[in-house]
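Continuing the batch. This is chain 6 of the set; chains 1 through 5 are on the previous pages. Same settings as before, nothing changed between runs. Recording input and output for traceability.
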Amino acid sequence: MSSSELVTLGETMALLTAPEVGRLRDMHQLRLGAAGAESNVAIGVRRLGHPSAWIGRVGDDELGRMIVELLRREDVGVGAVRYDPGAATALMFKERRMADVVRVTYYRKGLAGSRLGPDDVDEKLVTGARILHVTGITPALSPTARAATHHAIDLARAAGVTVSFDLNYRAALWSREEAAVEYRDLFRRCDLVFAGEDELGIIDDERDSLEVAKEIGADGPEVVVKRGSEGAFAVTADAVVSAPAVPVSSIDPVGAGDAFVAGYLAARLDGGGVEARLAQGCACGAFAVSVLGDWEGLPSRQDLALLDHRAGTTLR
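Output for chain 6:
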């Protein structure tokens, strides 16, 4: 199996999206696609020029094969993907209940992605990477998925591979108290921690995000806080660095955090400093929200140059 600079681990689901604003029950057709926080990041990093791979389980069904074929078209490594004959591929439904309110529903419990286990983790793939990226979604799926996450991290740490962790809290999967215990354990074993500003309240809801980020960073990791339309900041051992958001018209906010992470990690793989990483993360987030879909708007390096043009520009 060829090496990848970035390896991700987690669940990717078939995605059914309502094409219009309104109740899901009133839609006469849905658009079929795929989405998963970790595979979104893998696609984003690959589009920015770095080889990436995704480890996961999908059902041995049409939806599972659609997911694998989609990732293969995006040139993401899928050699470590397992087809599960005993469980179906999970489903995700997305509707715009109001013009600026998106509602997401999941059907995933006991399905293929949640059956991920330590034996599914490809040791050579993980130890040959430069970065292993995981999220707080996977350990919340099931005990075996949690064990797989920890096993991958153990392999990466033993091999000197950078470990990146995005909280990606999902209230439907576990309580804030359960998540906080797991997060604190993972913080001590990661080199990079990404969190939305609201997610830091899971760790401590009485202090502001900067103070909480500094507390997390005291154990060693670089902490990056995503603030949506307010931009982002990073807490390193030496400084606190911030960057503004890139102003764009938002069409679909789902996937913006993954896009930011992809941009940040790709810039790190490029050898860029914190300022460059934050800037590229914010730029990728802007592209993501400007297009319908969880990953479709993720930019290439050539796309990033479009931000230098004024709104309304036509390139001929």
